[in-house]
Design a protein that fits this description.
Blueprint (H helix, E strand, L loop, with lengths): L10 H18 L15
């Protein structure tokens, strides 16, 4: 999954990244065969 935000260090980006960390990644880990995932951001 790739996300693009206008202000990568702004408040909206922070909320999106937090959602990915707290909701989306745990959901993906419930899929059989999925062992992990990577998240990162570039300035």
């Amino acid at each position: 999954m790739r996300t693009l935000v206008a202000e990568p260090l702004g408040a909206a980006a922070h909320l999106q990244y937090r959602w990915h960390d707290r909701v989306r990644m745990p959901d993906l880990l419930t899929i059989a065969g999925v062992a992990g995932g990577w998240t990162f951001s570039l300035p």
